Amino acid sequence: MKILIIEDEVALAQSIATYLKEQSYRCELAGTFGEALYKIALYEYDCILLDLMLPGGDGLRLLEELKRLNKQEGIIIISAKNSLEDKIQGLQIGADDYLAKPFHLSELSARLYSLIRRKQFGNSNLIQVNELQIDLLAKVVKVNAEIVNITKKEFDLLLFLIGNKNRVISKSALAEHLSGDMADMLDNYDFVYAHIKNLKRKLTEAGLPDYIKTAYGMGYKWEA
Amino acid sequence: MNQLLNKTLLYYAFFAIVLLLLSAPFFYSMMDRLYKDDVDEAILLRKKEFHQYNLPTLHQEDIKIWNKYNRDIWILPDTTTGAINRIQETVFLDTLQQEWEPYRVLFNPILIDKQPYILRIRINLVESEDLMKAVAKLYSGILVALLGVLFVLTRVISKRLWHPFYDTLAKIQKFNLEQQSVPVFHNTAINEFKALNAGLMKLINANLKVYQSQKEFTENAAHELQTPLAVFQSKLDLLLQHASLEEEQADIIISLYETASRLSRINKNLLLLAKLGNTQFQNRQDVDVRATIEEILPYFTEQAQQKDLKISACLTDQPLWVQANKGLLEIMVNNLFLNAVRHNVISGTISILIETNTLTFTNTGQTTPLREGLLYKRFAATSGHTQSSGLGLAIVYQICQLHNWQISYQFINQQHQFSITF
What we know:
The complex is a heterodimer of chains A (224) and B (422). Chain A has 224 residues and is of the alpha/beta class. Chain A folds into 2 domains: 102 residues, 3-Layer(aba) Sandwich (Rossmann fold); 99 residues, Winged helix-like DNA-binding domain superfamily/Winged helix DNA-binding domain (Arc Repressor Mutant, subunit A). Helices cover 43% and strands 24% of the residues of chain A. Chain A has a 5-stranded parallel β-sheet with strand order 2-1-3-6-7, sandwiched between helices. A 4-stranded antiparallel β-sheet of chain A has the order 8-9-10-11, with no helix packed on it. Chain A has a 3-stranded antiparallel β-sheet with strand order 12-14-13. In chain A, 42% of the residues are buried. Helices cover 55% and strands 18% of the residues of chain B. Chain B is an alpha+beta fold. The two termini of chain B are 34 Å apart.
């Protein structure tokens, strides 16, 4: 999988690249508007991470350019602008997702994961992980062809873990992911533990090996 | 009574009364003197007439008859010891009314048939008491008339004169820095009011400018902080991946995570506060408060489990529709709810009540009332709660202001109660 990271803050771009490389993505960086334009025109990517404020031009113009070139890449905007208008505008011009800074790398990775799957498989979207089969559209989880009855929150949690395979996900990232709009005001992450516990129990009861590991009390990891 | 118009009137009335009272004795003595001069002149005239017309033909045997038919001009034997040829004031008994009355009297020596006599001419003075009464009546008449005229004049003139002032006053009372609407003052020809309006305009514009630049600064600062925060957080995410982490290091990372979360929370709230007045939040729609509460109830119920809080929601059967910005209403309700959870005690209670057009959150918590003056101030959190951004209630307050809702805080039965009246 090839990812283009268009981000002028080098430290952030490198963090993203390092994290994603471990997930077996191949990452390229572009730090300016011109560089990004050049790379977009020359190469094909599976997904583009796009910062809106770039030296040399507005990220939204890159979006328009991609549309003009009729490119099919999935696009996730990563921006410090967090107003609803910016989001709507970005999504209208053709971005697939919008992530406001600061974000957790695990959140980015999970979104990237589901975006790429959405792009690749269209609507008949099945994910097979070892004995586990996930139907993204129907939101159904099967272990060895047996349906596991899990809640929406647990389903989200499972996808998030799988989207960050073999990576340690911090509790705060999980909590914020599960809280959605309410994330800004969160102050205790203990409810994450309850959800993880339930999910683990349901999966192991269905016959799945315990892939969800606790990492030094800081977070969790899907180890398979 | 402290109105400008009444004050003016009061002063006018006061000074008019003082002036009239002070001038009354003077006026009285002037009247008195004028009147006496007049009477004295009449006495002298009568003396002259007597000397000219009566004296030459008068004989001793006529005196009795003369005195019988004359009331005020008598001829007396020459035994008087009083001052001669000088008019003076004396009292005589009015035998009819048994009352002493003041008279001006002149004793004038005359010769009738070569015998000396005294001619006594007297004229009754109006009693000074009567004069005083007359003066008092006159004066109170003048006073009433004067005050009446003053009242009407002040009313009419002042109302017209002060109209620009009251107009300006009403406008600056309505002025709200956050709404950014500059008041337009009426044109006036009066220099003082012109200067007042100009001065106010200058003040308002300067204030708006400061407010604007403060807002921009907050917005920019918060905005610029987002990227470094993102870097910080991403590096933490990377650090977490190291397999060689020991527990001690892990603890440090956890607390760094917490700090990062708190930083970004403060930052987001600051940004929101700075942006609240912006146009993006100006669109209003009908939002159901009850539905908003019902929507977030499961989330907070989950959050409340850790503290074993009992949440009771007493919502109406009907939806409570308000004109609001949907996103802001949600933020406000979330903040109130979060507040009730965060500052609660273990096994405490939270109750949410909707009555007609009021939403009330009541919760247990610290056992002393919060200080209302500081409640809605930024970063003035009265509790030492580390997770609190110190901005939650400031945001709630601002959102209420923006929508013209009333927020009130009460400490009843050892419980904290926040009410929003829509």
